[in-house]
Amino acid sequence: MDVYDNLILYETNDQFLFEPIHDPGNILVIDRLNQEYSFSNGKTHFPSTSKSRSIFGIVGTIRLLAGPYLVVITKRSKAGMVHGQDIWKIEETEILPFAKTILHLNGEQLAENKLFKSMIEHVLNIPHFYFSYTFDLTHSLQRLHKMTPESSQIPLHERADKRFVWNHHLIRDFVGQPQMAKFVLPVMLGFVQTHHCTLNRKKFQYTIISRRCCYRAGTRYFMRGVDQEGQVANYVETEQIVEYQGDKCSFIQTRGSIPIFWSQLPNLKPTIPKAVQGANHLEGLTRHLDFQILNYGKQVILNLINQTGEEGKLEKAFSDVINSFRSPIVKYEAFDFHHECRGMRYDRLGILLDRVGAEQEEYAYFMLLRDGTVVQQQNGVFRTNCIDCLDRTNVLQSLLARKNLQQVFLKLGILSEGQTVEDQQDFENLFKNIWADHADVISIQYSGSGALKTDFTRLGKRTQYGLLRDRLNSLVRLYKNHFSDGFRQDAIDLFLGNYVVEQNRLILRIDRSWKYILLPGILCTATTMAFVALPFPNELSITGILYPLFWSGIAAVAWNLIVDSGPEFIDWPKLVCRHRPLSTA
């Protein structure tokens, strides 16, 4: 069952009315006073005073201190086509209050309500949200093919994969009546790019779809590892699709945080990843892998973290637990990415590709012919992780994807025997840039900055400019992870319904100590005075030297006090208690 693609929204003092342009006889009416949902017979009289505008979908409703708010899509752009169906990207949204006035709130409540609203706006502005009116974007081609023909009559939001429906909390008021199905639009966060390509005068479409899971969603330092249900942080399913003359091939990979209980909470001092002491790591890993096997079949766990130092301790904890799991359909491959590729020798990733080559051949990929015949199915996936599941992970996933393309292009006859993907310069450049764009988007969504190591993904080699860009992105990550990710985590938890706003309860206000208020001011003042007091070479004197040294000393003392009190300066989440510091060892 498709969803309405164009609506006229009428606003009156008492109602929101949604009129489908292509089905004006089915008007959804929302009462702004009692929040009741009903349908008109098409003879509705729209008051001349009502505001009207075109919208492209309803994201849902969210309840804040001032009451419910309606979220609608006001601008979209076409992201491409898959399986002959249009995929759209959300460009702009609008948040509309049900209540015309909010006189019942006091000053503190108004301020908190404004902050809650800004959180919803923040999530909606995360790049990139996608949707389709006619295509179930949350499922891979293989899963879609396994569905029965009757499933096409099931509402789109009901047959969607709940892991990837990011507005599931916002559409809860819309799922009670069958008539509402055509107004309920599942929204996915991730990455979509499609390109029309030509090789050997043969035209085909190349697509990458990445689906971010909403079950353990959050920011880099506040969401790590696995939870009690087996869900992991930064879990992403990535599908590579080739469509040629009606034939379709699909290759799935997954990434996700190391599936044991571990944390790496921010501090102004360097922090290290630590396994949680006393946690039942085997249970968390088992639930995660059971879920993986149920959805994808056999597994190769590719762990790219360092095998020495602090990361090495986490690698040992992970390998010990996964060796206890002992499943014939789960293979563990640890590859010390930084050690093996030191000196910018990224060509050494070929060692790992050779080690898992047999599994890639065995797991295969999904292939559907134009007549509906399934030639083969994918019966296993590579599950890749590094510490953040961003930079190293994306590099390896792009290499596995290219290796799959070699198989697909030969099978479809796009390439001839003896030809390789790497030798097709135009397509190779396109492929590298898509995967580098993919790295940046997934990284921004999780860490707040662009990805590292994308010079290798784009150019096939590491460069000095790439190293400089990586350092800049690392600094941006460092700042955001320490001083703005608490807000981002709260925003995600509010949007997903992990926290539900309670009336008459203020929770976002926080009382800071004198250190938070005074020390940064002293640091800035002392640093400024030290620079201002620097004497010119021809004016050197004892006083001229001691004066900047004095202020430099004050700045150093202030900075050391700030670092020693690091946790007091971190932007901690305030809505969900599970983001508080854990006991680790």
TrEMBL record:
<feature type="transmembrane region" description="Helical">
    <location>
        <begin position="542"/>
        <end position="562"/>
    </location>
</feature>
<protein>
    <recommendedName>
        <fullName>Phosphatidylinositol-3-phosphatase SAC1</fullName>
        <ecNumber>3.1.3.64</ecNumber>
    </recommendedName>
</protein>
<feature type="transmembrane region" description="Helical">
    <location>
        <begin position="516"/>
        <end position="536"/>
    </location>
</feature>
<dbReference type="GO" id="GO:0004438">
    <property type="term" value="F:phosphatidylinositol-3-phosphate phosphatase activity"/>
</dbReference>
<feature type="domain" description="SAC">
    <location>
        <begin position="120"/>
        <end position="448"/>
    </location>
</feature>
<keyword id="KW-0472">Membrane</keyword>
<dbReference type="Pfam" id="PF02383">
    <property type="entry name" value="Syja_N"/>
</dbReference>
<dbReference type="GO" id="GO:0046856">
    <property type="term" value="P:phosphatidylinositol dephosphorylation"/>
</dbReference>
<dbReference type="GO" id="GO:0005783">
    <property type="term" value="C:endoplasmic reticulum"/>
</dbReference>
<keyword id="KW-0812">Transmembrane</keyword>
<feature type="transmembrane region" description="Helical">
    <location>
        <begin position="55"/>
        <end position="73"/>
    </location>
</feature>
<dbReference type="GO" id="GO:0043812">
    <property type="term" value="F:phosphatidylinositol-4-phosphate phosphatase activity"/>
</dbReference>
<keyword id="KW-1133">Transmembrane helix</keyword>
<dbReference type="InterPro" id="IPR002013">
    <property type="entry name" value="SAC_dom"/>
</dbReference>
